Amino acid sequence: MYTLYYAPGTASMVVHLALLEIGAPHRLVKLDFAKDEQRSPDYLKLNLRGQVPTLLIDGQPYFESAALLMILAERHPEAKLAPPPGSPLRPDWYQWIAFLTNALGPAYRSWFYPPDLGSPEHPPFVREALRRKIEDSWSFVDAHLTARGPHMLGAGFSGVDLLALMYMRWSRNMPKPVTEWPGLKRLADLLRARPSWKRLYEIEGLAEWLA
Ligand SMILES: N[C@@H](CCC(=O)N[C@@H](CS)C(=O)NCC(=O)O)C(=O)O
After folding, report:
1. 42, 48, 139, 184: most buried by Cβ count inside 10 Å?
2. Residue 54 and residue 47 in contact, taking contact as beta carbons nearer than 8 Å
3. Whose CA is closest to 109, among 10, 193, 8?
4. The pTM is what?
5. Residues of the chain with pLDDT under 70
6. DSSP output for 134-184
7. φ, ψ (nearest 5 deg) of residue 23
């Protein structure tokens, strides 16, 4: 049994999507960021940094969205979120998860949380550097998808696509949303047509960027 601590539309999204794709029974605990619930003493016992997601697996708390995706894929091989160990696409699975979390995760975090870098709002040059870093990473992924897509691992869907989809959604109000790159738009459209996406929107109460 799993318990996911989440906040709508945040880094918990990929874990929630993975649970829905797997069809694994789970309990959801929503944290209200407006009330700072991620910093309540009880939650800090589970997640010292006061961030989502946290996933309880058999009562033990774990964090980091990409790690949780990999753990779930390994525990539910029948869901085929990851190519099996030793198969030709397994290295690609590791490569793209590491690339997306390294190149995009910290840059988005800095973009959305200026206080992490020490000021309430970014000075223009910092904002510009972060924008360029995020867009350069998306250009690189778009070139990959154009050459080898339509999914992150080629012809077939995998859990890496869920991670990419979460990050893609975060670009929707940025100067250049991912839908302006053809390969990224094609991937976003394929993934947004999956039942798990619509279900996630219903459960999390999301509206923007459904389709
Ligand atoms: N690297 C972490 C990032 C987690 C993270 O930054 N979560 C944000 C939401 S997207 C959060 O909990 N923010 C609340 C806060 O920092 O107060 C992951 O991928 O799990």
Report:
1. 184
2. yes
3. 10
4. 0.98
5. none
6. HHHHHHHHHHHHHHH-SBTTBSS--HHHHHHHHHHHTTTTSSS-GGGSHHH
7. 80, 25
